[in-house]
From TrEMBL:
It catalyses: [protein]-peptidylproline (omega=180) = [protein]-peptidylproline (omega=0). This is Peptidyl-prolyl cis-trans isomerase. Coiled coil: none annotated. It comes from Luteimonas rhizosphaericola. Belongs to the FKBP-type PPIase family. Pfam families: FKBP_C.
Length: 155
């Protein structure tokens, strides 16, 4: 069976950056299982997997526009330290949910000074080309419950 809209695919993958460093990978005993066509994985990878079947192996380079987007420097801001009232220690790498006009946005603290905190609302992988090494393990039809939710049931 081929990976098509509303099918459930199970894949093993390794994701690396331009320097070949591993960013993420599925574990041997827990492949990534996803509902194809519902936007549950980044668009560039989903497009590359369409039409594949169990046993297929592929390498996919996903440009930022089809991954986590290009960096938007407008999402980097300096805030006064007192905007973090109630938080004893603010450190780089911490993440907070900010309220914006468009709804909640996950921001990461990138720098802390005495009176200011620099935050970044970009996804940590925004602006990067992503390199996937993928093996398709299984493809099946989705169940009615999966079609309703748009998500694969996890084993």
């Amino acid at each position: 069976m081929e990976i098509t809209a509303a099918s459930i695919a199970s894949i093993q993958y390794t994701l690396t950056d331009d320097d070949g460093r591993i960013i993420d990978q599925s574990s041997e005993d827990r492949p990534l299982r996803y509902f194809h066509g519902a936007g549950n994985i980044i668009p560039g990878l989903e497009k590359a997997l369409a039409g594949r079947q169990a046993g297929d192996a592929l390498k996919v380079d996903v440009k930022p526009e089809e991954g986590y987007g290009v960096r938007n420097e407008g999402l980097v801001q300096d805030l006064p330290r007192d905007a973090f009232k109630g938080v004893d220690k603010v450190e780089p790498g911490m993440q907070f949910e900010a309220r914006t006009e468009r709804g909640p946005l996950l921001v990461t603290v990138v720098n802390v000074a005495d009176d200011q905190v620099r935050i970044d609302g970009n996804h940590p992988l925004a602006g990067q080309t992503l390199h996937f090494d993928v093996k398709v393990l299984d493809v099946r039809e989705s169940t009615d419950a999966e079609k309703q939710s748009g998500r694969a049931e996890q084993a």
